[in-house]
Amino acid sequence: MTKEGPGSKRGNQDSEAAWGVVGYLVSGLVAWGGVGALADHFFGTSLFLPIGLALGAGLGMYLVWVRYGKA
Fold this sequence. Notes:
Blueprint: H1 9-43, H2 48-68
């Protein structure tokens, strides 16, 4: 009989999946928020940063759904 604990393969896979989700969400915000911040800087506006952050959050959630939601 095997006992699942913190060092088990299942626990390790869950931990890797959780960090993958965090990585997709944060990278979407950083990448598209950065694009929005650069666009705001070059155009002298304050509109593109929130748009970039919203787009990054949405695309990050979509990638999480595609990668982990169909299991």
